[in-house]
Design goal:
Elements (H helix, E strand, L loop, with lengths): L1 E5 L2 E4 L4 E8 L11 E6 L6 E6 L6 E3 L7 E6 L4 E6 L8 E8 L12 E4 L3 E6 L1
């Protein structure tokens, strides 16, 4: 599974962005079997969980710091997962990574449960 994240940029505090992550899969692998997650890493900090969505899209989980401001969704027909980020704060500045978990397993906030990672997209929030 190869993941390509996009949509990051420079935005003022209070602004919004829509991050996208498109998956490319080998023959026989089905995007809709994979739970997906978004993580972020700020300068000098460890990578942290942001949001996750089940393979069916029916279950979503968020970090407390982003709950009600961020929304994760997926379009299995387009092999794409999205992260809508609203009401951005300077502390949201980070490289955002999408990740694919293990097929048909539940959502997870643990980095260890994700086997495939995109290259990251930078979100910078100015005050």
């Amino acid at each position: 599974v190869q993941l390509q994240a996009s949509g990051g940029g420079l935005v003022q505090a209070g602004g919004s962005l829509r991050l996208s992550c498109e998956a490319s899969l080998r023959s026989g692998r089905i995007f809709s079997n994979y739970p997906m997650g978004w993580f972020r890493q700020a300068p000098g900090k460890e990578r942290e969980f942001v949001a996750a969505i089940s393979y069916s899209g029916g279950t979503r989980r968020y970090a407390d710091s982003v709950n009600s401001r961020f929304t994760i969704s997926r379009d299995n027909a387009k092999n794409t997962v999205y992260l809508q980020v609203n009401s951005l704060k300077p502390e949201d500045t980070a490289v955002y990574y999408c990740a694919a978990g293990r097929p048909l397993l539940g959502v997870s906030s643990s980095i260890r449960d994700y086997d495939y990672w995109g290259q990251g997209t930078l979100v910078t929030v100015s005050s």
